[in-house]
């Protein structure tokens, strides 16, 4: 996804950060929870969404927080689908 195109869609996911890792851009957001159980329940919801859509993020679950990172492996970068999945993750 070109930078200009991403900026057009960024308003739909204002709390997500673009992080470059090994030259590959990712959409990353940390979700906060009251305890580990809530974090695990959210992780499960993200996993079910990912499986239903056939698009899988990196999910790191810790006590009280879950970090979700979306990008498209096939193109080693961001695609419109990543923005859509980030927005769907926000709605969980």
Please name the CATH topology: Gyrase A, domain 2
The SS-based structural class is alpha+beta
β-strand amount = 25-35%
How many DSSP E strands? 4
CATH architecture term: 2-Layer Sandwich
Question: Helix share of residues?
Answer: 25-40%
The biggest sheet, with number of strands, parallel, antiparallel or mixed sense and barrel status, is: 4 strands, antiparallel
- SS field, number of helical segments: 3
CATH class: Alpha Beta
Order of helices and strands: HEEHEEH
Going by CATH, the homologous superfamily would be Transcriptional coactivator/pterin dehydratase
What is the count of structural domains? 1
- Order of strands, main sheet, comes to 1-2-4-3
Termini gap: 25 Å
Calculate Rg over CA atoms. 13 Å
Report mean pLDDT, rounded to a whole number.
94
Low-confidence stretches: none
Can you tell me the overall shape? globular
């Amino acid at each position: 996804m070109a930078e200009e195109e991403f900026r057009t869609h960024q308003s739909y996911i204002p709390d997500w950060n673009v992080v470059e890792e090994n030259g590959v851009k990712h959409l990353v957001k940390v979700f906060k929870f009251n305890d580990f159980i809530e974090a695990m329940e959210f992780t499960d919801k993200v996993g079910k969404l990912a499986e239903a859509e056939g698009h899988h993020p990196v999910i790191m679950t810790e006590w009280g927080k879950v970090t979700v990172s979306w990008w498209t492996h096939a193109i080693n970068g961001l695609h419109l689908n990543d923005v859509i999945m980030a927005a769907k993750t926000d709605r969980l």
